[in-house]
What we know:
With 492 residues, the chain is of the alpha+beta class. 53% of the residues lie in helices and 16% in strands.
Amino acid sequence: MxxxxxxxxxxxxxxxxxxxxxxxxxxxxxxxxVLPTFVIGAREDHLSILFTWDYSYEEVYGLFGxxxxxxxxxxxxxxxxxxKALTDGLAxxxxxxxxxxxxxxxxxxxxEKGAADVVFSKPVSRFALLMTRYIAxxxxxxxxxxxxxxxxxxxxxLVSGWSxxxxxxxxxxxxxxxxxxxxxxxxxxxxxRSSVAAxxxxxxxxxxxxxxxQGWYALEATQGGMTLDPEQDEDAKVDRGxxxxxxxTALDVAHFILPKTGDADxxxxxxxxxxxxxxxxxxxxxxxxxxxxxxxEFTRDPAATIDAGGLVWRDTAAPDAAxxxxxRAPIETAGTRFGSSKKWLNELKKDATVSDAERVSESxxxxxxxAVRWTKTLDGAATRRMTRWYFESGKWLYVLEIDADSTxxxxxxxxxxxxxxxxxxxxxxASGGNALNFNAGSSNIxxxxxxxxxxxxxxxxxxxxxxxxxSTLAFIVVVLVLAQFKLKRIDF
Length: 492
């Protein structure tokens, strides 16, 4: 195949996309959705409209009865909410469905009587023509993904001053997932020569594949004894009866065979965190637990590390008045948050200098934790107020402690700084991120149950990213080979 034929095939694929009415409609809709990012600027302390009208976050959130203005970075909350709404709801679910419906006719129309006579009379292999239609579908998804995600990135960067390189990773992930369903569409189109059949079978496959993986995630979590009850014995496991064993075997087989579109959520989050972690105050790669920034107007002890005495920050203006520390230890030696916090409370009750000791169940970024509070009397009348939060992330038990003298806590600004630092902590299973949701409209159970902790580039086979990507690409190749096998045997 010479260069002229190659260019002609590429132009043909491009025309398949540009001449598509649904493509043009979606293109306009996406431009309209992206336009606000170029019109509304979410600055650090206010919202700017058309660079002319400025509104404080207290005014904006007050209109909706919200209290997000109390957060340390309301602009980030607003921007990430917009990113999540468009990528999860529009691109990850409805975008895939619309793209399936809009590209289902690519192959059947080429095989129609008359069109096929003209196309296959040319000195071009049938495999090249098959790949032209397949690549046309990928171009369809790629252009729309770039317009929406790339447009939002540029808009937020120019108008809001917000740079989020990890957000761009959603583009190749979106194309990757659509490559799977479009391969199925091409295969069905070759076998049936019907656009309706190609669309319906692909939609059914997409939904079925998503349901299979959601079921696998749920049963895999059950098999691992995962629980939402923090006081339940972590060694307690759910007995696997005959039915559950059969289901797990069937789903394991399906997991190994079917393309793992649900894993795209995990992969996107993993890569994004690797990109975004630069500049974080603390980041645990194994669990995606992170501390975004240091406490405001606190100075970090340069000699301290998370595993050697813990990270320590001291009030810059009054180092002896208040300090915040974060330490961790393996759960297998330190115990769970429930047991460790209870043990520490019992120790405090034995100390005659301690008063008002109590333990309560609290959350950090919607992540379960136990807080122990107490007041300690020093020599004379001086007292210090202390709080420890015990929480778990992966194999680690973390302890966050605020230790300050009572007069420091009487200042509202000091309390707000300490509270804001707690909000800087985020957890992969709680924060949700901006990963795309590729499960035909259903929420990703794997993310909700924290299964992504088991996944990784060096994890066991069924949790391994390389295996997930490799087996999915292998599925695409097999499907296209079957389509080519059938296409070569069609006699026009």
